[in-house]
Design brief:
alpha/beta; Zincin-like; four-stranded mixed β-sheet
Length: 242
């Protein structure tokens, strides 16, 4: 349980401090802008926490620099020729105006063909694409959930999809419910599997402690590689603005 949350500044870097009843101190740097967060045991005073940040400044700055160098998409205008991502591949958008019901089709693994009535505006086109993304992500989940529930040894009561600005996934451990960020459908499948497994492990262990990492290592030995892959994947314009 979090007992206190506040922010300090260490040599020009804002650091969010979360105090918990935990054994060890944990430092995290999170995309897209390199936000720094520390989970600190209650027994450590602020000077000890500050010293922990100082001793890790080199690593923190390297992580932040990596996020700054990450590819970013420009604002999506939903016009023919734009690049859009699906399952880690880049596709060219082809907006086709024609009478009839809107539809989206993948063409030759190179193109997302967006069929819309004439004069459909950007917002409506984007809404259609987001619905298509949600349906494709939902299609993938049954097989992946069954696979990783067996490996982790848990069963989620519910898997939901929503757009989230600061997290790839989250869960309610008491209810056994997991939420996945819709943006994961744009990333390689291994990234989706990593986040799904990550949240399943949280159903067994709430905190990012030694037990959490041991459970992750047992279920998915390559999880650190998949985490790096996720952090290297191009950021959307919306993610860029978080």
């Amino acid at each position: 349980m979090i007992t206190e949350r506040y922010t300090i500044e260490v040599r020009g870097i804002p650091v969010e401090i979360i105090r918990k009843d935990i054994k060890n101190l944990h430092v995290g740097v999170y995309p897209p802008k390199g936000r720094v967060r520390i989970a600190a045991p209650l027994r450590l005073d602020e000077e000890a926490v500050r010293l922990a940040v100082i001793t890790r400044l080199g690593w923190i700055r390297r992580q932040q620099a990596g996020f700054q160098e990450q590819d970013r998409q420009s604002w999506r205008e939903m016009t023919t020729g734009e690049s859009h991502y699906f399952l880690g591949r880049r596709y060219r958008l082809d907006v086709i105006e024609q009478e009839g019901l809107p539809a989206i089709k993948l063409v030759n693994n190179t193109t997302i063909a967006l069929h819309v009535p004439p004069d459909t505006d950007r917002h409506a086109c984007n809404t259609l694409l987001q619905r298509w993304y949600r349906a494709r992500l939902r299609e993938q989940l049954p097989a992946l959930v069954a696979k990783w529930e067996a490996k982790v040894g848990v069963q989620a009561t519910d898997i939901r999809i929503k757009r989230m600005k600061t997290r790839w996934g989250t869960c309610n451990s008491k209810a056994g419910r997991i939420w996945l960020n819709l943006e994961l459908v744009k990333k390689p499948v291994c990234c989706l599997e990593y986040i799904l497994t990550h949240e399943m492990i949280h159903l067994l262990e709430r905190y990012h402690n030694d037990r959490f990492r041991e459970l992750m290592d047992a279920a998915m030995p390559q999880w650190r590689l998949y985490r790096e892959e996720l952090n290297r994947a191009p950021l959307t314009h919306e993610e860029w603005q978080y």
